[in-house]
């Protein structure tokens, strides 16, 4: 068995020397990354749906806000961005009634097949359909968008660091580039975007760009908040059910664990007494 | 079971007697998890984690089997089918979050379980086979978790599969053939997804089988305990049921409460945002990282930055990463100290905690981009990782002066609780 330890000494020394040899190599001088220097992290702000303490344990969506966010999406974002994972029927979560959802669905044309000729055609949407794609495929999107690809927004909040805060910061984050930074033609400077150069023009550039029907003040700040919350819902439509179930589950488990602790103490009482 | 005072199963009902003659399953359970398994009476809460790991596996299998009913292993629809589960399947969001968070929790409890074994010397004779079976389970878990992560077919799934299978290409001569065999092609594609789904469904049941062997091997010598000294008399033990079933139930409650808190209130906290972007072979994420439970090994992999004589750096990293786990198989023969528990090994106890810190720092470094200071930090700590097991432990176990051991578990328990009990004189139990 001393052979094992001898072998271990050899293998151990081998790996140690090899890795430390790398550690003592001189490093290339660090070139400061200009993107890192200018990049800004999203601002964390309080959201109604995050509930008490912004912890995400309680809290429900503000239905009015979701509807306003949907309005922003429809009037602005939907020109280029799809929400293809969301079905029209899901809009019931926003407080829309069945006839309203039918009407919204019917205002969209969805791909179908002509039932006489079999040729590709379109038809009016029904509540069971998903929101249609804006472009049939990536090539079409890039051709229409000067080479850029507007991502589908269904999951965008879960697909970016910062989530809801990211959308809010990005929408309002457009700024003039500092002198040290050159923005390529056709792109815009936005320090909240990972490469700083975003192809999307400022989508919500002015107050009063959208007229809210519920009388909420039409400001850029409000638009950014509303669209961020709407996209939080498209990414996590079961958020409310999740928290509701979670609270019930945790309360149940705490009681169960408490009873478990008492029975553990009772079962062990005689052993502890005897030992003591 | 080996202890002569173990209670024997006595069927009391007619039907009980009937089955005991033909298929003594109740007798088996009675001896394995019931009153027929005498267990050291001084096990602390760290000894709950084996049962917790078993429960974690069962949760993964149950949620996974149901998820498999709705998932489609085809690159064109895999990501969509996961979102279908999240949005349209009744309770699908809960199943998927339980499965994803459950994988993290499974590794969490298994890591505690392994470190418990390291601290109390549970790998030492007569439990070497038990230890090695545990390591086999750990390796199978890593393969299963990796393949499950690929099934989502998000960006990190795809690029993780590219990186991890690419490791095998570093092996001389046969490397690229192995990589092609694993992928079923030259890059991750439909063939990859299909074989990973098949294996991801198979391996948990293999793990289950090895767990049965692991528990069998446990029951031959019986559980180790915090003193590390062997059970001598009946006074050292209590029957597993009701004593440890009650304690495990309480531990399970605490575990499930924490699990539920993460599943329901922060289900994506342990994941990577990039995996909510569908896989795109034409767009490489800026920062490819595995899930947190692979970070220490990922740090070791990336710590080898220069060629070592004729061995390319990449191959060194791959060898080191596999060696980092495989060396644990030799631990019972590297640590020759006759004393099991670190409670009586003053020097080794300090080294144990140094190793815990090293493992944690490697974990943090593995999750960071390959930049300074993290690269250099991983290099120094990787060196310590190997030195710890392969050089320091064999030496320390030979020269360390250990503290005197209590004569029995009962005596140790008395020393701990004896003085605090009023009115009862502390006397060594016979």
Structure description:
The complex is a heterodimer of chains A (276) and B (430). Chain A has 276 residues and is mostly helical. Chain A has two domains: 34-86 and 130-236, Cytochrome Bc1 Complex, Chain D, domain 2, CATH 1.10.760; 238-276. Chain A has eight helices and four strands, in the order ααααββααββαα. Chain A has helices at 2-23, 34-38, 63-75, 98-106, 138-144, 163-171, 220-235, 239-275, and strands spanning 109-113, 120-124, 188-189, 197-198. In chain A, a hairpin with a 6-residue loop joins β1 (109-113) and β2 (120-124). In chain A, α3 packs across α7 (220-235). Chain B is mainly α. Chain B is built from 16 helices and two strands. A two-stranded antiparallel sheet of chain B has the order 1-2. In chain B, α5 crosses α10 (240-265) and α11 (295-303) crosses α14. Chain B starts with 13 loop residues before the first helix and ends in a 13-residue tail after the last helix. At the A-B interface, α1 and α8 of A face α4, α5, α10, α12 and α15 of B.
Strand content of chain A: 5-15%
Chains forming the largest contact: A-B, 60 and 69 residues
- Give a short account of the largest sheet of chain B: 2 strands, antiparallel
Helicity of chain B, in percent?
55-70%
Number of domains of chain B: 1
Structural class assignment of chain A: mainly alpha
- The number of helical elements of chain A comes to 8
Mean pLDDT of chain B: 93
The residue ranges of chain A in which pLDDT falls below 50 over 5 or more consecutive positions are none
SSE topology sketch:
The complex is a heterodimer of chains A (276) and B (430).
Chain A: H1 2-23, H2 34-38, H3 63-75, H4 98-106, E1 109-113, E2 120-124, H5 138-144, H6 163-171, E3 188-189, E4 197-198, H7 220-235, H8 239-275
Antiparallel strand pairs in A: 1-2, 3-4
Chain B: H1 14-22, H2 25-33, E1 38-40, H3 49-70, H4 78-87, H5 92-119, H6 128-151, H7 155-168, H8 175-183, H9 190-219, E2 237-239, H10 240-265, H11 295-303, H12 313-326, H13 331-334, H14 346-367, H15 374-399, H16 409-417
Antiparallel strand pairs in B: 1-2
């Amino acid at each position: 068995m001393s052979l094992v330890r001898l072998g271990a000494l050899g293998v151990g020394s081998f790996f140690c020397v090899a890795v430390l040899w790398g550690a003592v190599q001189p490093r290339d001088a660090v070139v400061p990354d200009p993107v890192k220097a200018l990049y800004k992290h999203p601002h964390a702000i309080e959201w109604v749906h995050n509930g008490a303490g912004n912890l995400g344990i309680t809290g429900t969506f503000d239905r009015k806000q979701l509807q306003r966010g949907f309005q922003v999406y429809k009037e602005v974002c939907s020109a280029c961005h799809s929400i293809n994972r969301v079905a029209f029927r899901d809009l019931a979560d926003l407080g829309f009634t069945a006839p309203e959802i039918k009407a919204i669905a019917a205002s969209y044309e969805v791909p179908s097949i002509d039932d006489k000729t079999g040729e590709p055609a379109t038809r009016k949407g029904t509540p069971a359909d998903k929101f249609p794609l804006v472009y049939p495929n990536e090539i079409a999107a890039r051709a229409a968008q000067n080479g850029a690809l507007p991502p589908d927004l269904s999951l965008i909040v879960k697909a970016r660091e910062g989530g809801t805060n990211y959308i809010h910061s990005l929408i309002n984050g457009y700024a003039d580039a500092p002198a040290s930074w050159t923005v390529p033609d056709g792109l815009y400077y936005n320090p909240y975007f990972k490469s700083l150069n975003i192809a999307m023009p400022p989508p919500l550039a002015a107050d009063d760009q959208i007229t809210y029907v519920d009388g909420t003040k039409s400001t850029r700040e409000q638009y950014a908040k509303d669209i961020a919350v709407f996209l939080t819902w498209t990414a996590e439509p079961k958020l409310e059910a999740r928290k509701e179930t979670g609270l019930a589950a945790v309360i149940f488990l705490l009681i169960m664990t408490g009873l478990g602790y008492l029975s553990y103490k009772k079962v062990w009482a005689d052993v502890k007494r005897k030992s003591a | 079971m080996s202890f002569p005072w173990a209670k024997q199963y006595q069927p009391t009902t007619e039907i009980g007697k009937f089955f005991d003659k033909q298929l003594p399953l109740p007798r088996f359970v009675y001896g394995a998890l019931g009153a027929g398994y005498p267990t050291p009476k001084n096990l602390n809460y760290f000894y709950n984690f084996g049962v917790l790991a078993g429960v974690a596996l069962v949760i993964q299998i149950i949620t996974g089997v149901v998820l498999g009913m709705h998932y489609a292993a085809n690159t064109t629809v895999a990501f969509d089918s996961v979102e279908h589960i999240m949005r349209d399947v009744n309770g699908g969001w809960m199943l998927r979050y339980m499965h994803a968070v459950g994988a993290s929790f499974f590794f969490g409890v298994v890591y505690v379980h392994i470190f418990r074994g390291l601290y109390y010397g549970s790998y030492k004779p007569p439990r070497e086979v038990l230890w090695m079976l545990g390591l086999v389970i750990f390796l199978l878990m890593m393969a299963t978790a990796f393949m499950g992560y690929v099934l989502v077919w998000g960006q990190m799934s795809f690029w993780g599969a590219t990186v991890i299978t690419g490791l095998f290409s570093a092996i001389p001569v046969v490397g690229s053939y192995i990589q092609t065999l694993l992928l079923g092609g030259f890059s991750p594609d439909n063939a990859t997804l299909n074989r990973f789904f098949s294996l991801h469904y198979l391996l948990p049941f293999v793990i289950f089988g090895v767990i049965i062997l692991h528990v069998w091997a446990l029951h031959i010598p019986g559980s180790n305990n915090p003193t590390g000294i062997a059970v001598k008399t009946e006074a050292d033990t209590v029957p597993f049921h009701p004593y440890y079933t009650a304690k495990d139930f309480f531990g399970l409650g605490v575990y499930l409460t924490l699990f539920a808190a993460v599943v329901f209130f922060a289900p994506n906290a342990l994941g990577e945002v990039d995996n909510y972007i569908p896989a795109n072979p034409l767009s490489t994420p800026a920062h490819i990282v595995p899930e947190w439970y692979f970070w220490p090994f990922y740090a070791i992999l990336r710590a080898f930055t220069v060629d070592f004589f004729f061995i390319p750096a990449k191959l060194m990293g791959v060898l080191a990463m596999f060696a980092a786990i495989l060396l644990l198989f030799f631990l019972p023969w590297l640590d020759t100290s006759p004393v099991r528990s670190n409670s009586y090994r003053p020097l080794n106890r300090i080294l144990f905690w140094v190793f815990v810190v090293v493992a944690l720092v490697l974990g943090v470094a593995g999750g960071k981009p390959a930049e300074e200071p993290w690269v250099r930090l991983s290099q120094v700590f990787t060196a310590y990782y190997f030195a710890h097991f392969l050089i320091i432990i064999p030496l320390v176990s030979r020269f360390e002066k250990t503290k005197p051991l209590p004569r029995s578990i009962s005596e140790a328990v008395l020393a701990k609780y004896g003085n605090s009990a009023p009115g009862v004189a502390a006397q060594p139990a016979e």
